[in-house]
Amino acid sequence: MKSVAVIGAGITGLSAAFSLQRQGVPVTVYEASGRVGGVIRSLRQDGYLAEFGPNTILETSPKITKLVRDAGLESRRLDPDPRAAARYVVRYRRPIPMPSAPLGFLTTELFTVRAKLAVLREPFVPPRRDGQEESVADFVIRRLGQEFLEHAIDALVAGVYAGDPHKLSVPQAFPKLGQLEARYGSLIKGQILGARERKRRGEVAKDRAPKFSFDEGLQVLPDTLRARLGDAVRLNTSVTKLCRTAEGWTVAGRADGRELRTEHRGVVYAGTAFKLAELELCVEAEKDPWIAGSTGHGALTAEPNRGEPAPGSGGTTAPRGKRLDLSAFSEIRYPPVASVVLGFRREDVAHPCAGFGMLIPKVEGFKILGTIFSSSLFPNRAPAGHLTLTSYIGGERYPELASLPPDQLCALTTEDLRVLLGVRGQPTFRHCVFYPRAIPQYNLGYGRYRQRMAELETAAPGLFLAGHYRDGISLSDSIVSGCHVAERVAEFLKAAEDPDKTHPE
Ligand SMILES: Cc1cc2nc3c(=O)[nH]c(=O)nc-3n(C[C@H](O)[C@H](O)[C@H](O)COP(=O)(O)OP(=O)(O)OC[C@H]3O[C@@H](n4cnc5c(N)ncnc54)[C@H](O)[C@@H]3O)c2cc1C
After folding, report:
1. Atom 52 (ligand 1): residue with closest C-alpha?
2. What domains are defined for the chain?
3. What residues form DSSP beta bridges with 237?
4. What are the C-alpha distances in Å from 143 to residues 135, 152, 153, 186, 226?
5. What pTM, to 2 d.p., does this model score?
6. Pocket lined around ligand 1, Cβ cut-off 6 Å
7. Which residues pair with residue 234 across a beta bridge?
8. Model pLDDT for residues 198-210, shown as the tens digit of each residue
9. Which of the residues 157, 298, 336, 474 could staple to 402 if both were Cys, CB 3.0 to 4.6 A apart?
10. What would the mean pLDDT of 269-281 be, rounded to a whole number?
């Protein structure tokens, strides 16, 4: 039986492939790079365990719990130290704990009396009902005031998206915020009433969902899924063309420098938006769409393809059929981010670092976007008597800094940590990873890309688009997206086997 092709061995692709395999559907995973995990990257070195991409998984869905269980990883799961719950936000050039209860909000130094009064007035601010898409900054200024934007939300947005609140869209990037306003007329009322409703339904809110990692870092998850998938995973294999034929899908590209061409029942694209934009996609082609001389069928959204060599294809014949235009996805912005992991001797850091980490608003004037207190969260991240601090540089705030040489990144980070945490001397461990295109920005107008993705799936039945560029940028969103797309593929295959059931006429 022909397999389903899964393109991309990041966590989305691996979750999708593993879920399909468990349902008895054969899969082949194509990964352009020489490793699995995508942006997940853990490194064990010199007694430190460094995590450069995501640091934790939020257990927001039973699908995540099931994936970990099915992969046989329950015993390797690592929950964070409960004493590391505090989160800090920098103000007056020092980390201040974020209040965790309403009383704490009234007494915190994080906000002036004026900002606190603006927040207390929020339930009386009329909701916006004109249906216009609003940026995160405009939404927050309207409901909570300028100071709350500059000293809280700006830092949060940098921590989650490495993004700019003036560009990010509320309905696309933080849909729950817009829904709270629409449903309850106020964020504060919505928090209180929504919590009661969730309690009645037995649900856990995202901000309260448990987070976890694994004994040897998050890389354990993709590595284990890869081992379970065995020979189905093909590394160093870049897919460049997809064509829907009468029999299914032809997938073409380069595998270890050689030409690849395989047949599949369906295709899951679990890569990145910028690589999606580079794919050649055609539908309604003859049996072998790349044999010169087969009949073309004219254009759907782009020009008819007449079997000429495709630009950049090295002379290979371009697929024949209706070409679907994917170029718009290249507009999706992925700012660069550098992750800087530094280890210090405990006595060389004045701050207790007892907590999850600190977020830094732009107005405070530091280069780093924020720091995770990695070894407070998971003590096995540093050797005894040492601690690990993971900081991020770049994003939409300072994209030009992310590509600095490692020495300069470490120096900038150490200097900021000296002021903020009282770090002395030089780090005992240092390692940087540069992500040239890190996280997609769900900016104003992003809805048109999601709309286009849905249209493509309709125009090319058997092609499924999943992952961080469509279903949410977090690791947990990506896992859920992978598991969910596996369900959609299974339904598609079932309907294809029994077409009478789907078309009773
Ligand atoms: C620095 C950083 C920090 C982060 N921190 C957090 C965090 O703390 N918490 C959190 O929840 N999330 C975090 N995230 C986000 C989260 O890690 C990602 O959204 C998630 O891992 C994305 O997984 P994915 O599989 O969708 O994509 P990716 O990991 O990008 O994987 C896509 C894979 O597809 C491959 N590919 C693409 N095109 C092709 C092709 N044509 N042929 C073959 N292969 C192809 C790529 O090589 C890649 O391996 C962070 C991300 C970054 C970059």
Report:
1. 53
2. 4-38+223-331+444-502 (3.50.50.60), 42-60+72-82+335-435 (3.90.660.20), 111-206 (1.10.3110.10)
3. 255
4. 12, 14, 12, 8, 46
5. 0.93
6. 7-13, 30-33, 38-40, 53-55, 238-239, 270-272, 275, 337, 339, 435, 438-439, 467-468, 473-476, 478
7. 30
8. 777 656 676 778 9
9. 336
10. 98
